[in-house]
Amino acid sequence: MSTLLPIDILLIAACAWLAIGLAGLVAPGNTRFIAKTLFPLGALVGMLVGLVALGFLGESPETAVLVVGLPDLPFHLRLDNLTAVFAMLLGFTSVGISIYAAGYFRQGQGSAPGVLGLEYHVFLASMLLVLLADDAYAFMVAWESMALSSFLLVTTDHRHEEIRRAGFLYLLIAHVGAIAILLSFGVMTSGSGDYTFAGMRAQHLSPFWASAAYLLALVGFGAKAGLVPIHVWLPEAHPAAPSPVSAMMSGVMLKTAIYGLLRVSFDLLGSDLWWWGVVALAVGLVTALFGVLYSTVQNDMKRLLAYSSIENIGLIVVGIGLTLIFHAYRMEALAALAMTAVLYHCLAHAGFKSLLFLCTGSVLHATKERSLGKLGGLIHRMPWVAWLALAGVIASAGLPPLSGFVSEWLLLQSFLFSPGLPHPWLNMVVPVAAALVALVAALAGFAMVKFFGIIFLGQMREPALKDAHDAGTWEKVGLSWLALLTLLLGILPSTVISRIDAATHQLLGVGLADKLNEQGWWMLAPISPERASYEPLIFLVTIAATLLLGRWLVRRLYHGRVRRTAAWDCGYWFQGPRAQDTAEGFSQPIRRIFDVMFRLEMHLPTARDSKPYYSVKVEDHFWYWLYLPLARLVSAVSGLVTAVQGGRIAVYLLYSFLTLLGLLLVARP
Amino acid sequence: MSATISFSAQLINLFAALILLLAFAMLAQRRVMQLINLFAYQGLALCLSTLVVAVSTGQTHLYWSAGLTLLLKALLLPWILHRLVRRLQVKWDVESLINIPTTMLVGIGLVIVAFNVAHPISELSSTITRGTLAIALAVVMLAFLMMITRTKAIPQVVGFLAMENGLFLAATSATYGMPMVVELGIALDVLVGAIILGVFFFQIREQFDSLDIRHMERLKDN
After folding, report:
1. Which of A6, A329, B93, B214 has the fewest beta carbons closer than 10 A?
2. Nearest-by-Cβ selection for A668 from B117, B144, B216
């Protein structure tokens, strides 16, 4: 027996997750055993996955063929650098989420804890298998297990009508996406019947069929990632799910779709056409802008984050589009830069978005409230959660020195070179897209200020919030781990990039690592130090020093004259907590400016109302433009079909009989 | 040598013709008890024809098939059905949607179609039983027709079982029977199907106070 290869360890890890899940069925009602024993074990396995994948980066690919599968159709697995980057993301993110979940799941939340644990760990294992799969069959099996287990997790609290609805919508769109992916794989085999990825790489498709495969993959993976207009499940399913599940779905599951898109467009499809990139760029931009605008006007904290996830996926797809464009014109160094931005943003988003979703879970447990309008001032009651959420918020807003800034900066850097594209339209239009990306980043900042400010700052809007308590130890550890990841990704960009560069190298043939190694680890200058560079540590030290200096100066100069009053009351003693800026009020300017983007249902009180009330409901245009007409069409068509369903068994039998007779007569030799 | 083969072939054809005749008789039969008896006779004829094929070709597994047929289709299933009828106390006349003479005429048309369709296949076949393929197909179609035209649940089940008889005959005549595993599987399926349908009879009667399946139109999803 030779030594264990990394791929074997990952496979054992997947089996371990499954075993942990099954172990929960021994005592499905025992919350203590499942939460305090099994979930931490799952976190250990996650750590193993992350470390093995991290250690693997830069090695040459390994393959394995499993004995399980259909006869003559075994599962093929392969571990290469692209897989390793995403497996690392899965492993490290799941550590934080699993530890947090150990403290989060309590008695009496819908499904029994054992069932929940099984679904959760099957979800983890199937995501790992999605990444490892090396043939379409294994991929689809893992992909569907992932969809199904996450559906069951979303509907954990299935007693509520709207949660069941959200779950159903999610399952529906997941299936539409899966069909598109399956068709895409079918096109890529081009009739050879060889469903392994190696077989697909060997095919040379004509541009038409390659484009068909690419577009199908974009639709299929886009449905899972939440690209407009197939994003509608996301803002429904994420708030419906328990917070660790939302974190896992938003942080990791959406990335498996990105992984699939990268795998298909750069690895499996050999050819590349420049307009593929333009399509991805356009879809990504629309998604990002749509997501960020809707996230600014949400009043439910988890919906806000869900729309923010849509925005981030949009930015990632913009990066993929840019990479495709540069790659098609053989500008490989720039393609590598954009690809690095994509991978980095995947890692960054996995960290900070799961952190934020988990924070909403703690707030939800402490206050039983998810509407922003009823929160406020929680930093006094929940300092741990508040400060850790601040890290996530800064990263999500794309501010230095945390992770979100690095990836968005890299993305904008690669945009700055797009005027050099040798195409008369692209070199003028793509830079405009950069402006939109900048707008998205700014609006993301706005949404995050709203999220943090309304929940944690100011005064408590409801008296009940006084009883809020901080998160428990498990939850604090989980949150701190994710915050640590966010911080490390923020201040050590060169180190991280030189590790994940192996994946860029694998897909594009070039990478950034050589350039980065010439410089020190503290500095990030992807093209050249003269052009643009970023030294996160120096930045961090400067900011910290300035803040400390400012504080010291204030203490020194204004000693004794500092007066404390209630926050956010503008200095007026007669204003209560309800007079603070509200969630609706804060985003009112955005609603006004981007009026056309929303479908608003507003009720304003008039002077004669006996019971005056104010309500504003923001709805998605796509429901009315796309989904409801589609639903009506399906309903009409199925109405035609019901004519066939008479309810008489004799008639049904006659149908089969006539079919049989017809076939016999037609198929006569 | 050739004389014995031709004699056994004649015997097989005789039994096949008997099966077809019984199928017509079932189509025309109005009484439930008689219908079940006819089904039992058909099973017996099927068993005998299989036995003749087994003797003349020396295919040992066909003996098993014949035994199975005898046990299941000539004895066990008719007994179950008889018991059901007694328990349910349904000795009424069978109502049919189309009157009997018309049904018979349609049946004759179907036999012609079956012979027409099966002719090219029998030409290709090299078995001594190839002539019976057309009959087997006709039996399947007649049984199907019976299921369509009857309104009560028990004749429908008998039709379903008779259809299986036709399929079995087709299998024996075209390829000297299916592999044993398949045959055992089908036999078990038929048995289980009959038992489940028996349970359903009680449920249907519970629900509608009648075994007339026309009542089930109400179950339609509107």
Report:
1. B93
2. B117
